[in-house]
Amino acid sequence: RGIEWLLRASAHYVPELPVVVAENGFGSVGELETTRGEVLDLDRIEYIRQHLRGVQRAMAAGARVSGYFAW
């Protein structure tokens, strides 16, 4: 909910300012790798999913988000 709050707050205090979310990411240690070399990165997927939902809610409430970059 932090990203949603921040975007809503910026829209409240500086409504004309478009915002770009840069370098939003999730570092973790010990991801599971399958025998085929695939990484089971479910925590990172859920983290990004929740943040994108927060960005969507903030935009629906009037935040001017013009970009989002994950790393």
Low-confidence stretches are: none
- Report the sheet-strand fraction: 15-25%
How do the strands of the widest beta sheet line up side by side? 1-4
- Largest sheet features: 2 strands, parallel
What is the percent of helical residues? 40-55%
Give the SSE order as H and E letters: HEEEHE
Ends distance: 19 Å
Task: Give me the secondary-structure category.
Answer: alpha+beta
Q: Rounded to an integer, what's the Rg over CA atoms?
A: 15 Å
Give the arrangement of secondary structure elements.
Blueprint: H1 2-13, E1 19-24, E2 32-33, E3 39-40, H2 42-60, E4 65-70
Parallel strand pairs: 1-4
Antiparallel strand pairs: 2-3
Structure description:
This protein is elongated. By secondary structure, it is of the alpha+beta class. Helix 1 packs parallel to helix 2 (42-60). The protein has 2 helices and 4 strands. The chain has a two-stranded parallel ribbon. A two-stranded antiparallel sheet has the order 2-3. Helix content is 44%, strand content 23%. A hairpin with a 5-residue loop joins strand 2 (32-33) and strand 3.
Primary descriptors:
two-stranded parallel sheet, 71 residues, 4 strands, 2 helices, two-stranded antiparallel ribbon, alpha+beta
